[in-house]
Amino acid sequence: MEYLPKAQQASTPLAWCQAAVSCLRAFLSQNPDEQQETLSKRAVKSVSVPKKSLNPSIPPWSPDNPRGSIKLTLACNHLAPTSFHERLIQAKYPYVSVNSYTEGGGGAGVLKQGVAHFLTRLYKLDRINKPIDPSWIRITPGATGTLEYMAFGLSDPGDTCLVPAPLYGGFASDVKRMGLEVVPVLADADTGFVPPTKVLTKARQSVWMQGKKCNILLLCNPCNPLGLVFARDGLASMMKWAVNNGMHVVSDEIYAGTCHTSTLPFNSVWKIAQEDLNEQQQQRVHLITSLSKDFACP
C-alpha cells in the first residue's frame, strides 16, 4: 500500500498510531472493487455501511444550533467521562504482571478481583452471601467480542439462538460472524415483554423442524431498545425453561449500573441462578458486562 511509508516514517509511537489510522481510513475510502482484491467477502460486506447512517445530513444539536439533530441510535453516557477519567488518572497499580501474559490471556488477577468485587456489590450478591469468584471471570476486548466468543464456544455454524423481541439490532451481526442465526421471539407489554414458555417452546420446535439446533437463549437486561428491566419472575421462568431444555442462557447486562430507581428493580441472571438453580444448572448461565455504558469507556 502506498500509505504504509507514512506510518513507517513516524518518529513516536503516538505519531505511528495516528499515521496507521490515516492509512486505514484511506484504504477503507477506496471503492469496493479495490477493497475486494485485498479483503475477504465478509469483510467487504461489513465495511459497506451506507454513509447516510454514519453521517446525518442535519448537524448535531448544540446550544448554538437548537434545531440540530439528536442521535438516538447510540447509547452514549456523556455525563460520566469527566469524573471517571479523573479517578482513573489517580489510580496507581504497582503490579508489573498486569502488563504481561504471566497470568494467561483471560485477564490479570488483580483486575478480575476488582471486577468480581464490583459486580458482587452491583448485583447485591453480598446480601445473600454469594460473592462472585474472580476465577469465573474472563476479560475480553469489549462486550461484542465476548458475545462472539460465547457463540463460538456454545454453538456451531448453522445453529440458532432465541432472543426475546423487540431486540437489540446488533445481536444479529454479532453472532452471525460465528455462523449463528438470531431467531426473534415476539413478546408484548401484557407479559412485560417476556415471552411465555409455551411461545419459547414453539419457536424452538420450529427451529428443530428446519433441521437446526438451538443451544442459546440470548437476553439483554436491562433491555435495549425497550429501556426497561425484566421482572424477576419472568426472567426466572425463561432461565428455568432454557436450562431444563439443555440450553445456555447468555445475558447482556451492560446497562446494569445505569438503572434509575423504579418500582421494578433490576435482577441479574446470575443472582437468580444462585437463588433458584442448582449448581449444575448454574454452569449454563453466563453474563456479559462492559465498561462502555456504566463507565462511558466504549
What is the CATH topology descriptor of the largest domain? Aspartate Aminotransferase, domain 2
Anisotropy-based shape: globular
What is the succession of H and E elements?
A: HHHHHHHHEHEHEHEHHE
pLDDT < 50 runs, ≥5 residues: 1-8, 49-54
Look at the structure and give the mean pLDDT.
Answer: 81
Query: In what order do the strands lie side by side in the largest sheet?
Result: 2-1-3-4-5
Number of helices: 13
* Share in helix: 25-40%
Radius of gyration (CA) equals 22 Å
What CATH architecture label of the largest domain applies?
3-Layer(aba) Sandwich
| Cα separation of the termini | 30 Å
CATH homologous superfamily assignment of the largest domain: Type I PLP-dependent aspartate aminotransferase-like (Major domain)
How many domains? The number is 2
- What proportion strand? 5-15%
Verbal overview:
With 298 residues, the chain is of the alpha/beta class. It has two domains: 74 residues, no CATH class; 180 residues, 3-Layer(aba) Sandwich (Aspartate Aminotransferase, domain 2), CATH 3.40.640. 40% of the residues lie in helices and 9% in strands. The chain is built from 13 helices and five strands. Strands 2-1-3-4-5 form a five-stranded parallel β-sheet, sandwiched between helices. Helix 11 packs across helix 12. The protein is globular, with a radius of gyration of 22 Å. The two termini are 30 Å apart.
Question: What's a quick, concise take on this entry?
Answer:
InterPro entries: Aminotransferase_I/II_large (IPR004839), Ethylene_sulfur-biosynth (IPR050478), PyrdxlP-dep_Trfase (IPR015424), PyrdxlP-dep_Trfase_major (IPR015421). With 298 residues, the chain is α/β, with parallel strands linked by helices. It has 13 helices and five strands.
